[in-house]
Design goal:
This protein is α/β, with parallel strands linked by helices. The protein has 13 helices and 16 strands. The chain starts with a strand and ends with a strand.
């Protein structure tokens, strides 16, 4: 199997600084101005380390420079640098890199939904794709559940390709970032792609019921709001489930951003990671989270404003999770996932967690390190 690797070096840049995506050079510039740190290269290295540990010397065709080769430097993998025009800093780079790897049967890319769209648009007929999750929005069904999972799946494909099944109808989804920043979720299906099938290693496309049990969820949120501990910073993650706690406390939530409450008052709206860390510097922290539909992610999908440092402060016992029973029943796998970008932290968060599905109603769910 001929495998190509492409990295979007700015993927996910806007997550921790509250920009809800990184589509377009203006957004990239603003993310950097706000102090964002690139993550895609480091996450790509994690995937390649897992591949190299099992299959040293595996052949990869890689895009040049920061689009691929820089992140594989020093690896025992056998690299063939693809020839392509100089990078322009736009999504066109990804498409040109795919075109330069037309003999590849699988394109591995590091990015989010926007990068997935660019790969799918240029992918040769019959070729497959696999995403190393690095973006802010990852609604598509083409991503591994974590960089390590991507590397493990690549090792399976290299060592025993005949054992891997394929899905020719994985959804490539994306949302309008400008609408998202205005508080409107507008998902769109951009096409179907061929991806490897690996139940424990691949995420589902985001979907499922949104609020079939609104009354029960509201009751659960009211219970959380009533029992908030004085002097504790409550970080309220994105989504309608977590946002129900803001409403129960008497405030309008930033549904697609991250807010913070202290002693019943709003102390941050649509906050960046740096703002939240400053607020949490001298007090206990608890984090209110929802669950992504079908995928089951708690952390690492759309809530990168909640940094690993804050998550470590809270710990698994400091996570307050709300979801409807229908949403939990519709998960692609009967567990929840965390992908903080820090493998040791993901491992520490693994175990069982209580999910509030109504007033006085709890469901125990297993949390896995993706």
């Amino acid at each position: 199997m001929r495998i190509g690797l492409i990295v979007n070096p700015v993927a996910g840049l806007g997550g921790a600084v509250g920009l809800k995506g990184t589509d377009g050079p203006d957004t990239v510039a603003e993310a950097l101005r706000r102090g964002a740190n690139p993550q895609a290269g480091a996450r790509t290295r994690l995937a390649l380390e897992r591949l190299a540990a099992r299959c040293p010397g595996a052949d990869l065709s890689v895009a040049p420079g920061p689009l691929g080769a820089d992140w594989a430097e020093g690896s025992p993998l056998t690299l063939d640098i693809a020839h392509m025009p100089a990078a322009s800093g736009t999504g066109r780079d990804t498409q040109l890199a795919v075109e330069a790897m037309r003999d590849a049967s699988l394109i591995v890319f590091a990015g989010g939904d926007g990068t997935a769209r660019d790969v799918a648009a240029a992918l040769p007929e019959g070729a497959a794709m696999l995403g190393i999750p690095c973006g802010v929005k990852m609604h598509s069904g083409v991503f591994a559940v974590s960089p390590g999972a991507a590397g493990a799946l690549l090792a399976d494909l290299v060592s025993a390709p005949d054992r891997i099944a394929w899905n020719d109808a994985a959804e490539v989804m994306d949302i309008d970032e400008d609408a998202l920043r205005a508080g409107v979720l507008a998902p769109r299906l951009y096409g179907l792609a061929r991806v490897p099938v690996a139940r424990r290693l691949m995420q589902a496309s985001k979907g499922g019921p949104r609020m079939d049990s609104a009354e029960a969820l509201t009751a659960a949120a009211q219970e959380v709001a009533h029992n908030m501990t004085p002097g504790t910073l409550y970080i309220i993650g994105p989504g309608t489930s977590a946002g129900a706690v803001m409403r129960a406390a008497g405030h309008a939530p930033t549904t697609l951003g991250t807010d913070a409450l202290l002693d019943g008052a709003v102390v941050a709206r649509d906050a960046r990671a740096s703002e939240l860390e400053a607020l949490a510097s001298d007090r206990p922290v608890r984090i209110v989270l929802g669950v992504t539909g079908q995928q089951g992610f708690l952390l690492g999908r759309g809530n990168q404003q909640i940094s690993p440092a804050l998550i470590a402060r809270a710990g698994r016992e400091g996570l307050i999770v709300l979801a409807t029973e229908e949403k939990l029943a519709s998960l692609a796998q009967p567990r929840l996932w965390v992908d903080t970008g820090v493998p040791d932290l993901d491992t520490a968060l693994s175990g069982y967690i209580r999910v509030r599905t109504g007033a006085g109603r709890l469901t125990m769910m297993r949390v896995g390190a993706s």
